[in-house]
């Protein structure tokens, strides 16, 4: 048992990013999946103002946000590895990915999955919960779906809008790769920009190395889009980052 606990939603791509950073940098931790609703209660009990996942409980502090967790992980690792937190370009690319890609991949997916096929989303949220929380989550699922639909402003128009934003961001990422660089921020080593892009885009390509891939089902229209996008340079890069570094 570790004295560090990372609180996550099993489905969350931002949580996957934090886990990947800590794994890559050789930091031990326990992972604690939470059910929606309970996450805010746990966050408050740890002194956080918001429930936003992931958050990492350390003996001396609680760190919230995947970017802040990467900052911390990169500053304490003794693995000899680095996610290039001192490289401005890596941090800038990461921020754009967090602010646009993360938000709109999620809204694209949930606008179809949660609104039209909520039963395909539930199994991923159930992963790693206690048996009691599994029962509670099953019972509360219709209510939680309604709340998520409202909070994330989901719907078919919104899903289409997010798809177009993701598409523009994929064009930008393909553009970065068009000079033949191996890593998004250039250089010869994996950076925080790479694990961010790979984690946030993983839902479209479901890499076999991702611990949740086999539990995620894509809704039909998104699956068709993902299929068309799979051969894009950035999607091939995501698959290769997972194969090499996850
Ligand atoms: N930029 C943040 C985004 C985190 C985020 O949006 N988390 C979502 C799950 S994907 C969440 O916890 N939503 C519930 C809430 O905010 O209460 C990060 O990188 O950690």
TrEMBL record:
Domain of life: Bacteria
CDD domains membership: GST_N_family (cd00570)
Family annotation (Pfam families): GST_N_3
Gene Ontology MF annotations: transferase activity
Keywords, alphabetical: Transferase
SUPFAM superfamilies in the cross-refs: GST C-terminal domain-like, Thioredoxin-like
Annotated ranges, domain GST N-terminal: 2-81
Keyword Protease assigned: no
Keyword Transferase found: yes
Protein name (Swiss-Prot/TrEMBL): Glutathione S-transferase
Species per Swiss-Prot/TrEMBL record: Arenicella xantha
């Amino acid at each position: 048992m570790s004295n560090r606990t990372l609180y996550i939603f099993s489905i969350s791509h931002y949580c996957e990013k934090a886990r990947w950073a800590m794994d890559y940098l050789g930091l031990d931790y326990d992972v604690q999946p939470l059910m929606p609703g309970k996450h805010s209660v746990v966050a408050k009990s740890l002194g956080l103002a918001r429930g936003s996942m992931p958050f990492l409980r350390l003996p001396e502090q609680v760190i919230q946000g995947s970017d802040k967790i990467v900052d911390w992980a990169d500053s304490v690792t003794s693995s000899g590895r680095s996610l290039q937190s001192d490289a401005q370009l890596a941090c800038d690319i990461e921020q754009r990915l967090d602010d646009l890609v993360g938000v709109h991949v999620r809204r694209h997916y949930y606008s179809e999955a949660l609104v039209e096929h909520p039963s395909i989303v539930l199994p991923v949220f159930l992963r790693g919960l206690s048996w009691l929380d599994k029962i509670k989550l099953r019972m509360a699922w219709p209510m939680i779906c309604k709340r998520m639909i409202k909070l994330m402003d989901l719907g078919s128009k919104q899903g289409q809008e997010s798809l177009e934003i993701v598409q523009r961001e994929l064009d930008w990422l393909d553009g970065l790769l068009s000079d033949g660089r191996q890593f998004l921020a250039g250089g010869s080593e994996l950076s925080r920009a790479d694990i961010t892009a790979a984690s946030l885009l993983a839902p479209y390509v479901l890499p076999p190395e991702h611990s949740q891939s086999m539990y995620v089902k894509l809704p039909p229209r998104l699956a068709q889009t993902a299929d068309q996008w799979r051969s894009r340079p950035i999607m091939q890069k995501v698959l290769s980052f997972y194969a090499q570094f996850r």
